[in-house]
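PROTEIN ENTRY
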Amino acid sequence: MNPVIRCLIRFCIEQRTDWQVCGEAENGEVAIGKVAELNPDPVILDLQMPVMNGLDAAREIGRKAPNIPMLMLTMNYSEQLLKAAEAVGIKDVCSKIDGLPDHLIAAIQKILDLKNLAIPQTRIIDATA
């Protein structure tokens, strides 16, 4: 994802004073390493990343850190993609072009609620290359 979109995502996330982007990854392999290093509360993955796509990265993150929830962003949302994403452990898929800020914030809040996170500062990895 281009840096402008990544900046927009960071801005949207950090409008919540209790949320912080603790890391960014420009590709799927880097995202896997950042998850191990930073232990975020959720991870946001882009479907189309260089080196390793979001589904493959999610599969590996799920093996190495099964308790960290994941969200996916894509330009090409479909029910088929949602099923494939859920099969590798992704909790929700958000369209980049259809109400991204609101859907992304709602999706993050939903997975944090499901995880019953009542921590003062939520740490998020943005791997939207």
